[in-house]
């Protein structure tokens, strides 16, 4: 049973010899560096499945190997088209590595390329379970701004905000932990080729990402005021 979230990639054809190639970065027939395939993604660039658990040591080693092979310095005497492909490939490789090595950005990217990322309908709306704490936080922020404008004592107010920041940082850590657990569920669903389970996991990942984004914005706002 195939997933509706995925589409089959067309066979790759070398731009130089026009033969079909099984090489990800270089033609398996003529050895020429290959253009970035139209339907490629960062996982495919590292020859990885679209799963959320990645062994970081292996990813880094692969990145270093590809960085050397694709580096423009290796193509200074090559044809202009090859030099241009090398530049694009090297740039995309760096983007891919930065994305896949970060567990949160990796989840966001995976959902994006699966066509499954759903942003919160109202990014300014607090999750119901946080309403009271967010209300208290906003009150404290307003009081701090008023005290600063009036030249009043702000020490106690800043201490209250520091406590609130610590509280929301803790909640951010909790969300990150939940994301790691649900990410494992995604990998299990992929291994089982279970569409229904995959859709359920996607819904949960989106909810957690939106919750994380909201809490992260709260933390950033508090940090700006404390600064």
Question: What does the model show?
Answer:
The protein is mainly α and 227 residues long. It folds into 2 domains: 1-101, Helix Hairpins, CATH 1.10.287; 128-226. The protein has 7 helices and no strands. It is elongated, with a radius of gyration of 23 Å. It starts with 41 loop residues before the first helix and ends with a helix.
Write the layout of secondary structure elements.
Blueprint: H1 42-45, H2 56-70, H3 80-100, H4 103-113, H5 131-150, H6 155-192, H7 195-226
Helix pairs in contact: 2-3, 4-7, 5-6, 6-7
- The overall number of domains is 2
What's the Cα radius of gyration?
23 Å
> What shape does the CA trace take?
elongated
CATH class of the largest domain: Mainly Alpha
**Name given to the CATH homologous superfamily of the largest domain:** DnaJ domain
Number of strands: 0
Hey, roughly how much beta strand do the residues contain?
Answer: under 5%
Distance between the termini: 54 Å
Biggest sheet: strands, sense, closure?
A: none
